[in-house]
Design the sequence.
């Protein structure tokens, strides 16, 4: 059952913070099984789900194939605001999901996305060449706090 991030954190999650994606390493051969694979990622939060983009060539992708559960940590030390969510991760591999997420991430993190259909087609080709997919995370557990 999904859990909603408290509405008072919507503005915080709309700001361009990095999230730390944590994935269990149980499936990664030779890895320290006690330590999760953790890496910074850009994220979008909308419709009650978090979305990130990864490539098929990365350890993250292989680990998600084996154990599709993650934890995301979004933290802003100067303002003492933190959101930690855990839940199942679903890999989305369709063109609409890729383009929508890329547009949202570029807008959020202040990147130029371009406007013409030709640029969109070039972008999609580039995303496909990179082996990009979208990972949608549905929060089942949410921890959040603000203040000092």
Sequence:
């Amino acid at each position: 059952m999904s859990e909603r991030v408290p509405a008072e954190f919507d503005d915080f999650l709309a700001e361009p913070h990095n999230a730390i994606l944590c994935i269990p390493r149980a499936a990664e051969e030779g890895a320290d099984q006690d330590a999760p694979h953790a890496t910074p990622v850009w994220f979008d939060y909308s419709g009650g789900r978090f979305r990130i983009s990864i490539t098929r060539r990365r350890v993250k992708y292989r680990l998600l194939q084996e154990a599709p559960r993650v934890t995301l940590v979004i933290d802003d030390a100067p303002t003492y605001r933190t959101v930690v969510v855990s839940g199942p991760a679903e890999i989305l591999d369709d063109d609409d999901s890729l383009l929508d997420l890329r547009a949202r991430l570029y807008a959020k993190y202040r990147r130029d996305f371009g406007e013409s259909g030709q640029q969109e087609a070039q972008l999609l080709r580039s995303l496909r060449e990179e082996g990009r997919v979208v990972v949608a995370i549905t929060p089942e557990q949410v921890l959040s706090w603000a203040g000092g």
Remarks:
- The mean pLDDT is 87.
- Residues 13 and 142 are 13 Å apart (CA to CA).
- Helices lie at 10-14, 59-66, 95-108, 117-130.
- The chain has four helices and eight strands.
